[in-house]
Amino acid sequence: MLRKFFILGIVCLLFLGVNVLFFFGWDGSENGPFWQKLSPASYIIFLLFFYQFGKMINNRALLVKNRKEEYLALIGLVLLLLFLQFNKQGGVFTLLGNTFFIPVLVSFLLPKQYPTVNLKAQQTIYLIRKLIIVFFVANCGIAIIERILTINFFPFTSGGNVSFNYVDYFRSTALQNHPLNNALITSIIMSFILVSEMKESKKMMLWFFGFVAILCFNTRSSIFGWCAFMGIYIFYQLFYNRKLKVKAKSSLLALVSILIVVGFFLVSYYGLGDRLIEMGLYDENSAGVRLQVFKIFDSYSLGDFLWGLSEQKTTLIASRVDVEIIENFWLIFLFRFGLVFTCILVYLFYRLLKARFVGYNRFSVFFVLLVFLGIASTNNSLATTTVALTLLILCAIAFHPKLISVKKGNHIGRIMNPKGNLGFAK
Fold first, then answer.
1. Which of 182, 270, 284, 354 lies at a C-alpha separation of 20 to 30 Å from 401?
2. pLDDT tens-digit profile of 100-138?
3. Higher pLDDT, 74 or 89
4. Residues 217-231: pLDDT tens digits?
5. What's the pTM value of the predicted model, to 2 decimals?
6. How many whole angstroms separate alpha carbon 38 and alpha carbon 225?
7. Is residue 69 classed as helix, strand or coil in its secondary structure?
């Protein structure tokens, strides 16, 4: 039963984005009811965590085993929450609860990869992997259909209002609200697909489907970024991947060439990604504003932001450089959390991710994190309500190189399952 509730939580997490929830009357913004600050998925995962923690609390050895990173992250997040509440920062419960606590709790509830076999745990992980791929296909498919019809089924919402006005360029919103957030989430899955054990042909077809969706999200940084990321991936496969045979490399090169031609056709004749084509990578109204905010450091040093700033002071400083909205999550963290807590947060999630990437080769870790940080750092996605970090953790588990298909009842990996872990124990 607990296993089913956990899977329900993952389904809600993936398929019920902020815009979808708002469409059905769930307002998680600052203007909404307090009980709606957390998403339905967050409620489910929090409840499962407290239940599981309660079961384990009488067994000290089980309580601390293989969960050091999660406990440290939870302690750090609780301290950050108290610090922000003390400084009367608004909206912190929604941000920390949905964006930062949930990935830590998901990591706590799921087993870690070690040479211990438990078929039930493996089946759960494999089911999560299938859910991620189904979500990927569904979200990308909706984005493409929206672009064809030039209609958003679930429009972007902010502050409890539908707030997207299209003048020249249409942007799909799919199931995860803002196009930038959608592009980041899609890119995370694309990167894991590319470094997975799937056949190269299947990888490339899924990747291309995701790239077409990114063209529909019309996010210039992601479009340009993926041209560079894909170049790195192809270069590695052709010249450094010794496992890939010469015939497979030739097929990969031929398939990539075909996809480039098809992509060029879609951009040229159907106007996909038209913001990048017509506006270029840099323009004063968007990219220019994101760079202009760094002028703040002409008058302030990092030492001035050790413990963060109040919302009023942040707004005042931003207005001095003619910036209304800060669209860089690193700067938002610096201004809101302060340099001290930003560094602590980065360190804690570094440890959490490092533990989850055990078993991956160096290129896979480098490539996935390059895609994630490269795209996330161009906008403020991680400073909003997003499932990006949670999805990064889920994908690191679900696409683990030791996880292989278990058709016809075969084992699908080697996944450690301490007795009593969420729904996985026999």
1. 182
2. 999 999 999 988 754 444 677 788 888 999 999 999 999
3. 74
4. 988 889 989 999 999
5. 0.90
6. 32
7. helix
| Model confidence band, residue 62 (pLDDT cutoffs 50, 70, 90) | low
pLDDT at 16 over 90: yes
Distances (CA, A) of 258 to 141, 245, 342, 410, 424: 21, 20, 44, 36, 44
Alpha-carbon distance of 100 to 145, in angstroms, equals 31
* Run of H or E residues at 157: strand 157-158
- The DSSP line for 350-419 is HHHHHHHTTTS-HHHHHHHHHHHHHHHTTSSGGGSS-SHHHHHHHHHHHT-TT----GGG---------T
- The rounded distance, in Å, linking the Cα atoms of 280 and 4 is 47
Terminal Cα distance for the chain, rounded? 12
pLDDT digits (tens, 9 = 90+) for 300-325: 888 888 988 888 888 888 888 787 77
Distance CA 409, CA 126 (A): 12
Alpha helices in 58-118 (DSSP H): 60-64, 68-86, 92-95, 102-109
For tokens 């340009």, what's the residue?
224
Distances (CA, A) of 163 to 148, 259, 383: 21, 35, 18
3-state secondary structure at position 308: coil
Q: How far apart are CA 34 and CA 93, in angstroms?
A: 10
Cβ atoms within 10 Å of 48's Cβ, excluding its own: 22
- Going by the DSSP 8-state scheme, the letter that residue 98 receives in this structure is I
Let me know: does 178 contact 156? Beta carbons within 8 Å: yes
**341/220 Cα distance (integer angstroms):** 31
Cβ(58)–Cβ(330) below 8 Å: no
Q: What are phi and psi of 169, to 5 degrees?
A: -130, 125
Out of 135-149, 234-248, 366-380, which region has the weakest mean confidence (pLDDT)? 234-248
